[in-house]
Amino acid sequence: MHNDRMTTKVAVAGASGYAGGEILRLLLGHPRLRSGELEIGALTAGGNAGATLTSQHPHLLPLADRVLEETTPEILAGHDVVFLGLPHGTSGEIADALPPATLIIDCGADHRLQNAQDWTDYYGGEHAGTWPYGLPELPGNRVALRDASRIAVPGCYPTVSILALRPALAAGLIEPQVTVVAVSGASGAGRSPKVDLLASEVIGSARAYAVGGVHRHTPEIAQALSAAAEIPVSVSFTPVLAPMARGILATCTARTAASAAEVRAAYEKAYGDEPFVHVLPEGMLPTTGSVIGGNAVQLAVTVDERAGTLVVVGAIDNLTKGTGGAAVQSMNLALGWDETEGLSTVGVAP
Amino acid sequence: MHNDRMTTKVAVAGASGYAGGEILRLLLGHPRLRSGELEIGALTAGGNAGATLTSQHPHLLPLADRVLEETTPEILAGHDVVFLGLPHGTSGEIADALPPATLIIDCGADHRLQNAQDWTDYYGGEHAGTWPYGLPELPGNRVALRDASRIAVPGCYPTVSILALRPALAAGLIEPQVTVVAVSGASGAGRSPKVDLLASEVIGSARAYAVGGVHRHTPEIAQALSAAAEIPVSVSFTPVLAPMARGILATCTARTAASAAEVRAAYEKAYGDEPFVHVLPEGMLPTTGSVIGGNAVQLAVTVDERAGTLVVVGAIDNLTKGTGGAAVQSMNLALGWDETEGLSTVGVAP
Amino acid sequence: MHNDRMTTKVAVAGASGYAGGEILRLLLGHPRLRSGELEIGALTAGGNAGATLTSQHPHLLPLADRVLEETTPEILAGHDVVFLGLPHGTSGEIADALPPATLIIDCGADHRLQNAQDWTDYYGGEHAGTWPYGLPELPGNRVALRDASRIAVPGCYPTVSILALRPALAAGLIEPQVTVVAVSGASGAGRSPKVDLLASEVIGSARAYAVGGVHRHTPEIAQALSAAAEIPVSVSFTPVLAPMARGILATCTARTAASAAEVRAAYEKAYGDEPFVHVLPEGMLPTTGSVIGGNAVQLAVTVDERAGTLVVVGAIDNLTKGTGGAAVQSMNLALGWDETEGLSTVGVAP
Amino acid sequence: MHNDRMTTKVAVAGASGYAGGEILRLLLGHPRLRSGELEIGALTAGGNAGATLTSQHPHLLPLADRVLEETTPEILAGHDVVFLGLPHGTSGEIADALPPATLIIDCGADHRLQNAQDWTDYYGGEHAGTWPYGLPELPGNRVALRDASRIAVPGCYPTVSILALRPALAAGLIEPQVTVVAVSGASGAGRSPKVDLLASEVIGSARAYAVGGVHRHTPEIAQALSAAAEIPVSVSFTPVLAPMARGILATCTARTAASAAEVRAAYEKAYGDEPFVHVLPEGMLPTTGSVIGGNAVQLAVTVDERAGTLVVVGAIDNLTKGTGGAAVQSMNLALGWDETEGLSTVGVAP
C-alpha cells in the first residue's frame, strides 16, 4: 500500500507548468500536509531545472526555498506518489523506470485512450497502453481507482463534456450524435511561449481552433460516451479560446424526444451523491467564474422543445477539476483517504 | 428620393447607447461627411437627454460640442435619415410620426420578423409589421434596400449565423436542423446597468444565457434559414457571454453527407462577389479580434467527416457588421451610394 | 469573551456584496467550521433580502440552501461575531443596537479615521467614532485587536499603500511627501450596477478616477503614514481602474537619499516575522495574479538612484487581504485563535 | 522631394510585428491610397519571411494576396518611404544602404536619443546618431519634420509622458523632479513569444516591470522634459503591464505651488491648436478605451492642493499615437501632406 508509512512523500514532475503548479497549489492546502502525513518532495522540470520554483510560480510562496531539479527517474524515485505534468509521449518511459508500487498520476494524454488506433490517428506514434481513468464519477471508476497504482487523469474538455452528456446517453434519452462547443481559458493550452497565445492576441478576441473533429480530446470524449450509450457515439467537438486564464464552459447538444422532466430526473439520479457534480436548479446557469480554483462541476440541463434538442451547459475550472483537482481527487482515492480532502466546491469569485 | 438635396441630414435616436455610438463613429469616418454631403443633425437620448454626447461617448471627440436632446418626433423631424437605437417596442410609433419619405433605419427588433406569432411568442405584445431586412448579402435584399425608406437592421447573432449557414441550406447540403453556439462580447447586451453585466462578473468568466431556444434572436435566424432551405429549419441556439467588449464567434453545425470540397464551392459561389463576407482559405480560422471595428464577416468552412458534420465558424464585430455597420451599409444602399462607403474590412488588431 | 461557548456563531450583514461573499468564501475554508467550532448563522442583505445566497454568489455552493434575510439588529442579534459589509454611514447604528460583547467587524469606512474633520471632509456628515484598526501588521495593533470587540477593517488601497511605505517613513529614509498610483480591479468599486463599471466599459480600458487627492482612502493612508513618520505626511494618491476583477498593484514613490541596502534592511526588519507580508528577493516583482484569493502582501523595494527615489511596488487581492481576509484575520486575533487560520499565502494562479 | 512622382511607394520592414501591422492598418485607410497617390510596396519580415501577410495579420484583409519578403536593402530599395519596425540596433545599417532621399521612418529606438552615453547606458553598444524626433507637438519639431528624410518615431511611453508634463515644465509651474506611473497594454511589449507575456500570465494580473528607472524609455522622457524646462529634469518612471492589448494610461505627478487655473491655462495654450492633443474639460478623465485605434492624446490636468501636487493623466493608444499613428503623422508632414490624413481622433469604443 502507498500509505503504510507515516508520511506520504509526493513528487511533481513538470512542476513549472500549469498542471504542476495547480497540483502544488492544492497540495499546499491539503489537510494532511499540515498534519505531516503528506510531504512535498522533489519538484522537477525540463528547461526550467535549476530555477527556483517561485521564479516560475510566484503564487506558491510557502515553497519559496525550493529549486527545480531535472526530471529523471533517479530524482523521482523514493516517492510514494509521483504526479506527471509532462508533454505526451514521455510518461510511459518514466513510469517503467519507477517501482510498480509507486502511485503514478499522469496528467498527460498517454494512457487515457483504450483504442490504439485512436492514439495513432490523433497523437501519432505507438500507444503506451491504458491506465485507470481518473474520473471517479463514471460508473465503476471509483472502485478501480482505489486499487490503482497508475492513473490517467482525463483531459479537461473530456471531463466536462463526458459528465454533461453521459446520463442522457446512458438513459437512452438522446440520439448518439452529440455536438460540443466548449469555450476555454488560455491556460488549457499550456505554458509554452507561442505567438498565438500571447496576451495581445488572446485579449479582446475569441477564436475556434482544431475545428472539424481534429482536436485530440475528441476520441477521449467519444470513448466514454460510447461506453455509456453501449453503442458508438459520434462527437462533433469544437474548442473555442476566450480571453480568460481559466475555465471551460461546454455547451453540449443532441437531439431528443424526451421531456425536460425526464432528462432532469436522469441527471439528478446520476449525480445526486456526487460531491463535486452539481446539477443546478432550474433557472440557474453555470458560469466558469463560479468554479475558479474549485473542483466543482456545475451543470444546467435544459430541453429546447421547439428544436427537439437537449442542451446541457457545464462549467469547470480546467486546471482544477480539469487537471490538478482530478489528480488530487484520484490520489486521495488511491491512498484510501477521503476523496474530497484538499478539494473544495467553492470557487474564487468574482 | 433621399439624396436629392445637396446635403443629407442624419439624426440618431438613442445616441447614448452602444448602437448609437457605433453609428456615429462610422459616420464620422464617412467620406461624404468630409465632403459636406452628409451632416450629423439631432442626437437624442432617453435618460441621458441634456448631457453632452462626449460625457457618454468620450471616444467621439469631433462631436464634443453636441448635447443630447429628447427623443421626440419633433426633434427627429427635418432629417433625411433617422437611425433608431431604441428599446424594442418603441420604434413603430416614432416611424408613424415621421414623413414616409424619411429613411428610417431601425437597429431594434420591432420590424425584423415576418411572422406575427413569432413576435408575440418571443417579445410579447403586438407585432409592428415587417420592414426590408438590412442584410444585403441575402438574395433579393440588395435590390429591395435600394428602394426602401424603412429598414430593419438584423440582430447581431442572426447576421453571423444566417451568413454562416445559408449557403449550405440553400444548396441542400445539410439537414434542416442546425445548432449555433455563439460567443459574444458584453456590448451585445447593451448599456443598461445590470449586476450580471458588471466588469467584475464578466471578467474571468464565461456563461451561457437564454439557454433552450428562448433567446429572441432564435426565430430571426430560423426565418432566414427556412427561406433559404425552402423548408422549415429548426435552430438550436445558445449564446455565450465571454469576457470581451465586442465580437461574436459563432460555431454553426449541422449534419451533412457532403464533402468539404462541395461545401466550400457552395460558399465561395455564394460570397465570391460580396465586399464584406470573406470565406477564409483552408487552414485559416476566424478570430473576433481581427474584425473589431470593421464590417467584415470572416467564415471558415469545414467538414468533420468522422462525425458527418458541417462546421462553419463565423466572426463579426457585433457593433459594426452586427449593428452600426449594417445600418450604414443599408443607408448607403438606400441613398444610392456605394454600399461600402465609410465601412472597412480592416479590423483594429491586436 | 467571544469564544467561551462551544461554537462561535457568525453573521454576515451585506452578504450579497463582494465583501460579504469573500468573508463567506474564507469562512467556508476555515478549519474551525469543519470542526464545528465555527458556525455560519444569519446572512442578511438589503435589496436582495429574500433571494437565495447562491442566486447572488453561485460560487458558494455549500450554502446553497441559505436565504438572505433583512439586515436588522434583531436578525443579527444572538451571534458572537457580526461582519458588516454595508455602505458607509450605516454601521454605527447597527453596532449600537448589538450587545457590547458582540465582536463586530466592519468592512465599511465608518470607524477607520481618527480625525473627525477628515471624515466630514471626505465622507460628509458626522463622524461615528474610531475603532481599532484591523491591520495587525502595524505596531501595537495586534495587541489591541486581541482585546477588541469592535474592529474597523482598513480600506483596500490603504492596506497595501501603508504597508508599502511605512517602514521607510518610520526609519526616516524618505521625505514625507509620498505618491501612490494604484491599479485596481473592478471589484473594489463594489457590486452596485453603474454604467461606468459595465464590462463593456472596463474591458480593454484603463482609467484613473478620483484624481487630485479626492479619493476617500487618501486621509486613511495619510493617517497611518503620519503616525509612522511622527510628522505629517502628504499623500498624492491616484487610483486607476484596470480590466481585471480582483487585485491592487500599488506603485509607491518618495524621494530618498538612502541606499537600496539601507532600505531593504528596514523592510526586512519590519516584516521578517509577519506571516502575510513578503518582501520579495531582489529581482522579483509582485504581480496581482500571484496573490488572488490569498491573504499575502507582496512587496518589491527598489531605489532609483538616478532619480533619488524609493519605489515600492506592492500587490494584494483587494477582496482578500484588502477586505475579507483582513476581516477574518482580525476575527482570529480577537477570538484568540491563530491569526492565520483559514487564510493562505498561496494565490490562485494563473 | 519625396512626392514629386505621381505615386508615393511605401515599404514596411518588420511588417509582421505590431508596429508594422498598425502602420499598414492606417495606410489602408489613408485617403491617398484610395486616390492612387499612395501605394503599398514591399512588406518584409525576419523569421516570418515567406509567409502571407494575413497569416500574421488576419485583420488586414485587403492585403490578403501579399507575401512577406526578406528584410534586405535590395528589397527596400526603390521605395519613396520606408517604415522600419525592427529590433533596436538594426535600423542604422539599413538606412545607410538606402538613398539619402528615401524617407525613412524608424519606429525603433536607435535614433531617438541625443546623448550617446544615455544610449550606451540603457541599450548598450554604440549610438547610431540622432534623427528628427517624430513628435510634431514639441516646439520646432513640426518644421523640422517637414524637411526630414530620416525620422525617429518616439517611444510609446515617452509620447504620452512628455506631452503630459512638458507645458508645466516649460512654464516653470512644477519642480523638475517628476514621477510617471504608466499602465500599458501588452502589445507594447511586442510580438515575440515569451512566457511572461502569455495570455494566462497577463489576464487577471497587473505587474510593474523595469522598476527603479531602468526602463529604456526613461532617458528619452528626461531628454525632452529637460529641454522644455531648460534645466535637467529627473524622472522616476514605472511601467505597469495591465490585462489589455492596447493603450497607455500615464499618471504623471510633480510638486507644484501653482493653482489649477494657472496650470490649465498653460496646457490649453500649449495644445489649443494641436489636432491630436485634447485637454479634457474639468471633471472629465481620460480612458484608454476612448482612444483605441485613434491618434488622439487625451489629457486631464488637476492640482491636488492638499498634497501640493500636479497630477496629469494622459491616455493614448500605444500602437497608434504611440507608434504607427506617429509614424504616419510624420510621413504626412515630411511629404508635405496634411498632417492628419488617414488619422482620426475617434477611438473604437467600447
TrEMBL record, chains A, B, C, D:
It catalyses: N-acetyl-L-glutamate 5-semialdehyde + phosphate + NADP(+) = N-acetyl-L-glutamyl 5-phosphate + NADPH + H(+). Catalyzes the NADPH-dependent reduction of N-acetyl-5-glutamyl phosphate to yield N-acetyl-L-glutamate 5-semialdehyde. One of its GO terms (molecular function) is N-acetyl-gamma-glutamyl-phosphate reductase activity. It is an enzyme of class 1 (oxidoreductase). It is found in: Cytoplasm. This is N-acetyl-gamma-glutamyl-phosphate reductase. Belongs to the NAGSA dehydrogenase family. Type 1 subfamily. The active site is at C156. Residues 9-146 form the Semialdehyde dehydrogenase NAD-binding domain. The lineage of its organism: Bacteria, Bacillati, Actinomycetota, Actinomycetes, Mycobacteriales.
